[in-house]
Amino acid sequence: MTIVIALKTDDTVLEAKAHSVSNPQSSEYGEHLTTKQIADLVKPSNQAVSAVTAWLDGISFEVGATGDMFHLNTDVATVERLFQTRIHHVHNHLTKQNALRAEDTTIPTSVAGHIAAVFGLYGLPLPSSSLGPIEMKAGAGMPAKVTPDVIEKVYNVSGVTPSGSLKNIQAVSEFQAQYMTQSDLTTFFSKYVPGKPTADHEVYKYVGPHAKQPGSSLEAALDIQYIMGVTPGLKSEFWLWPAMSFCLDLVKWTQAILKDEQAPNVFSVSYGWQGNLTEVGCEGNDVQVVDAEFKKLAAKGISIIFASGDSGSGYTTGCRLQTNTEYVGDTVKTIHNAELFQCCGNCTTAAGCGAWNYDGATHECTLKKKSLARFRNGFDAGPPTESRLWPSWPASSPWVTAVGSTRFIDQTPGKGEQATDQFGSGSGFSTMFKAPTWQQSAIGQYFKEEPKSKLPPQGLWPRNGRATPDVAALGEGFQVVVNGHVTTVGGTSAATPTFAATISLINEARIKAGKKPLGYLNHWIYQEGNKIFRDVTVGSDRYGRGPFPLPYGFDCQKGWDPVTGWGTPDFPKMLASAMKNQ
User: Fold this and answer.
1) Which of 387, 345, 386, 350 is nearest to 368 (CA)?
2) Nearest Cα residue to 19 out of 294, 295, 257
3) Of 9, 53, 111, 342, which one is least surrounded by beta carbons within 10 A?
4) What is 258-286 written as a DSSP string?
């Protein structure tokens, strides 16, 4: 059983440094820190280290790369004794996933005040239904086919030839047993990136426990095939953490990056949760510690690029559904041709609504004042509950770059791009993080462009939150080879390795010119905005992962918007902008 204990530290100086080395307008731009320098800036107190070390007496542990985390790999009995708890094996019969979870725990008072978070006691995997790209079936509305050649032509990706130097490595990071096979990657190159040397379609290194396995998963295949297919010749690594505890795996992953002095410059990550994080066992302290890890990686000069999610605005109602039930009393409002979740959601936002009734036969929704319930066959009903628009995390961390998704207008390459509608480009405003200073102006301008009447009800989202995505790229119609067969898929998990590949190519050019990699991207992205990205002004995020319509969300507008960010790559302009910086 793996446990990670994170100690409390003061990272104020580190945060300032992470900003200065990542801001093209700073004299320290590009002066990224080593892991040792980072460790010196976040060193926990001697008292904290002594207290935790004494508590762990007799238990084998390893101190993490930056000195503020203790890693334990031990048996269940030892964990139960240490935390004075019982550990249970839990199994989700619907998803077939397993996890180990603790009952209530106790930590000595002399130690508890020094601990920021403990990972591995309550974590859960991401539900398998939320994982991976969306497979698209042949038929009406089938998106235009996207391959590396299409991406290169649409975004004008040219002028940079990877040298294969070990100074410029990129990686995809996979979680929860999502594997790839070299044979699929080789087949993909032969079909869509032909004529390249064998080394161009071979993974340079596998990192993580059991990273190299037989059999291929759709997500992993998509990620590695497109980050490599757009950058043939650039060294690429495959990182995997399959332990089925998402927040724990995130910490183990970031710690492994910090430990690696030859870590890749760019990581593409297509995983996250667009909902209440307690549903996957991630509490508030866990999120803050993971965010602090991303801050360290920013200071180290590593670009962490996350998919923004496939559930659009992330609208959820948390409806308490009562079947074969009707509420009687005064009617507040009647809505015709409604969906069940819309009925519940409208009750949450309608003044005076105390209950809702939904007739599944006629699709009629009736909002009622609070009244008595009675049996009625075929009706669903319930009281209003809290609704929320959920952005995806970790994409909503201020220290990563979030990528949304587009498709071709009229599904025709060359006709421009709009927000995806076979699923929703994950977006929104975070309740966990305030909008950073580098983003506030862009958000303010969006509120001037978007009519107030089209914004979601204010109670569903925080107007001052960190907003996502930051940028976007094509995300429908990707041709992927999985276990020898070509499959058409879509998702922000397609857009993310595509965008990450463009950053790796820019790093290649900068390194050849004696410059440093771009590192943490968001200062540069928001300073340049539509000077280097193609604005996307068509579409919205009012689509779920189904697709199915959502009642609330945001629209694409001129400039930055919380659907497609600043838009999609204009590679020559991105390259020119990056090369003018020191």
Assistant:
1) 350
2) 295
3) 53
4) HH-TT--SEEEE---B-S-GGGGT--HHH
